[in-house]
Amino acid sequence: MFARKGDEPGAGRTGAHRIRKKGDGASHSATRPLAQLNPARTAQATAAFVARILLDKARSLGIAVDINGDELLALMPARLPLSTRQWFEIWLGNFGPEIVDLIRGGRA
Questions:
Q1: pLDDT by residue (tens digit) across 15-64?
Q2: Are strands 64-68 and 71-75 parallel, antiparallel or unpaired?
Q3: How far apart are CA 76 and CA 67, in angstroms?
Q4: Alpha carbons 63 and 75: distance in angstroms, whole number
Q5: Among candidate residues 41, 68, 69, 58, the one with its CA nearest the CA of residue 92
Q6: How far apart are CA 57 and CA 18, in angstroms?
Q7: Rounded to whole angstroms, how far apart are CA atoms 35 and 49?
Q8: Could you tell me the CA-to-CA distances from 39 to 31, 35, 42, 76, 93 in Å, in that order?
């Protein structure tokens, strides 16, 4: 019921808003969510990662992906459902520059 020194108003007995001071037996580092513990990938690194996944999945489905200059070409088997072919057309188009870079770099 009594406020301790360092408590914010309204904290009550829970100590939820208690301001920790050095040497009070508490941890010196705040608990952070997992997203803050690992540095975020850059947008370019994430795009290259997604491009690699798309190429790997395309190959597993029998889709041949290659380049002609700066143009991305995809040869898809007729046995694939139309929705799958359309999905790959969209996503290969979205990550076209990254896929071209992977193929040019010999990492495809």
A1: 555 555 555 554 545 565 555 555 556 777 888 899 999 999 999 999 99
A2: antiparallel
A3: 14
A4: 6
A5: 58
A6: 51
A7: 18
A8: 16, 8, 9, 37, 28
CB-based contact 54:91 (threshold 8 Å):
yes
Q: What is the pTM of this model?
A: 0.57
- The label of the residue with tokens 């370019």 reads 44
Nearest 5°: CA angle at 27, between 22 and 33?
130
Amino acid at 72: L
DSSP structure string for the chain:
-PPPTTPPTT-TTTTTTPPP-TTSSS-SS----HHHHSPPPPHHHHHHHHHHHHHHHHHHTT-EEEEETTEEEEE--TTS-HHHHHHHHHHHHHTHHHHHHHHHTT--
> Residue 92: CA atoms inside 13 Å, Cβ hemisphere, count?
24
